[in-house]
Amino acid sequence: KNQLILDVSALSKVDVDQFAGIEIGEFASRIAETAMWMMDHIMNSRLSLAFGKSYVRIPLKKSPMIQHGDALNLSWESVLPAKKCTHILGNPPFIGHAWRDKDQQAGMHRVWGRDGQVNRLDYVTCWFKLATDYAQQNRTIKIAFVSTNSICQGEQASILWPQLFRSGARIFFAHRTFEWLSEARGKAAVHVIIVGLDFDREGHRQIYDYDNVKGDPHMSVVPQINSYLISCPQIFIAARSRTPAGMPKLFQGSKPADGARLKGPNGKFITTSNLILEEEDRAAALAREPGIAKWLRPYVGGQELISGAWRWCLWLKDASPAELKSSPEIQERLARVKNGRLKSPTDSVREFAATPWVFTQDRQPSSRYLAVPEVSSETREYIPICVLDENVIGSNKLLILPKPELWIMAVLTSAMHMGWMRTIAGRLESRYSYSPNVYNSFPWPVVNDSEKAKLDASAKAIIAAREACAPATLEDMYDAGGMPVELRKAHKANDRLVDRLYRKERFCTERERVEHLFNLFQTRVAPLVAASTKQQRRSRKQS
Q: Could you write out the DSSP letters of every residue in 355-399?
C-alpha cells in the first residue's frame, strides 16, 4: 500500500524573522535574539514529538529583527511598517512619576507632551499611546501589554483611557490584577494586569479574574470592558470635592509644618521635627521639664494608627503667652519652628512663623472622630478604620470624619466599600492611597433607622473583636495571612449585612460588587451631570 509521507516542516508556519522588536540595552537585545532562537527550537521539538518526525532548523538561516534603541525615540514604522504588523506585544517598564530619571521624563514629554495631567501617568503608558498611534495606519493590529495595575485605578484611569479610546481603541480582553513572580534572584512579586486592545467595535470581550491575585484565572465573556477593567459602561470617576448629601464631610487631619534644617556632624543637612516628638524624645523632654506634660497629646497618622507606634505632639493652641515663656524646652523648640517656617518657599507657611506654637493647618475636631489611614498596604483585605478620642491629634496622613455614627464605619469597612476603594483610589507605590474622593464618589446605600441600628451593632462587633486581640496592633490583626478568627467572622458578617443593602442576591466576587456600584453610580450621577450640562448650555445661549 502507498503511504503518505508527512512533511513536518510544512506544518511550521511561524519563524523568527516574523518578529521585530526594540530593546534599549544592547546586550539585552542580543539576549532577546538568542531567546527567540531557543523558543523556536523548543517549539520545533514539540512539533517533532507530536507527529513522530524529527524537525530542526539547522543551520539557522533567519533571524529576529531586534533593534537596539529607545522605543520612545525610535520610529516604530522604521522598525516594521504598520501595514505588515499583526500584533504588538510587550512588557514595558513600570515607573511612577516620582521615580523617573531625566531621560525617562524627557521620553514622557516626547510621547505625551506637557499639557494637562499626563505627567501623573506611569511610564508604561507611553507604550500604550505609541501603539495606538502606530495602529492608526493598520486598524487590524491587536495590542497587548503587561502593565502595572495603577493605570486602571484612581486618577490614572480618568487621565489615560479617554485619550486612548478617542483613537478608536477598545479593550477586548483583560487579565485583572494578579501576582507576577519574577524568576530573577531577589526579585519580589509584583501585582500586574494584562490589557488587550483592538479597533473592533463588535463582538464579546473577555475578562480574566484571579482568586486572591494568585492561581489560575477564571474567564468570563462580557459585552464590554471599561477603563477600570470591569464590565460596565465607560464611566470615568473624576475627583469629587462635594460631600454626599446628608453625609458628614471627610477631610485631612492637622499639619504642623514644624521642621527646621540643621547641619549634621557629617556636614549634610537634616530636617528635624520640633512640635512632633517620638516616644524617646518625649521621655527625654519630660525628664528635662516635667511641667510640659500638660501640653503633650498623642499624634497619630495612618502609619502610627496601624503599627501602634504612636507619636506625640506639643498641642499649644490653648497655652497663654506666660505659660509659653515659662518653659525653656518649649521656647527652644518654638525658635526652631519659627526659623524653619521663615525659610519655607510657601507664603502661607512663612506667615505662620509669627505664631510658631500652632499648627499651620489645624483641623482637629472637638469630638470623637472616625480615623481612616491615608495609606495602607495593598495586601490587606480591609483598611483598618477606627474611632479615636478628641484628645488624639490626627495628622495630615489621617482622614477624619468628626462625630462618627457607627453605621458609617460599618459601611466604610465593608467588602463593598473596599472593592470601590481598590478600584477608585490612587496608589503610593503599590499601597492604597485613600482620599476624600473615594468617600465622596461612593454610591452610599439608602438606609432606614432599623438598618442603621443593625450596622451600628455590626461595627461594635468588629471593635469588640479587635479589643479581644489586645495588645496586638492593627498591623498584626489585619495581616493578610493571619487575621484572627473572631475578627474575620465579624468582618464577614458585616460584609453580608452591607451587601444586602444593595441587593438580595449574593455577591460572589469583588468584581460583581464593583460592577453593581458602577451601574448605581451611573444611575445616580449621569442624569445629574447631563441636567447640569444642559442648564449650562441654556444659560450660555440666553446670555
A: -TTS-SB----SS-EEEEESEE-TT-SS---EEE-TTSEEBTTEE
**Averaged pLDDT for residues 512-522:** 93
User: What is the Cα–Cα distance from 76 to 137, expressed in whole angstroms?
Assistant: 12
pTM of the model: 0.80
- Please, are residues 432 and 422 in contact by the beta-carbon 8 Å criterion? yes
- The string of DSSP letters for 150-170 reads GGGSHHHHHHHHHHHHHTT-E
- DSSP per-residue codes, 305-362: HHHS--EEEE--TT--HHHHHT-HHHHHHHHHHHHHHHT-S-HHHHHGGG-TTS-SB-
Residue 386 CB-density burial (10 A; 0-12 exposed, 13-18 middle, 19+ buried): buried
Residue 78 φ then ψ, to 5° = -75, -25
Measure Cα distances from 216 to 184, 194, 520 in Å.
Answer: 22, 14, 30
Residue partners of 220: CB distance under 8 A and separation at least 6: 206, 207, 209, 231
Cβ 71 vs Cβ 24: under 8 Å: yes
Q: What is the pLDDT of residues 41-99, one digit of tens each?
A: 888 888 888 887 777 777 777 778 888 999 999 999 999 999 999 999 999 998 877 77
Q: What are phi and psi of 516, to 5 degrees?
A: -60, -45
**Per-domain residue ranges for the chain?**
14-69, 70-236, 255-354, 369-389+400-528
* Position 188 confidence tier, pLDDT thresholds 50, 70, 90: low
Residue 185: predicted pLDDT: 54
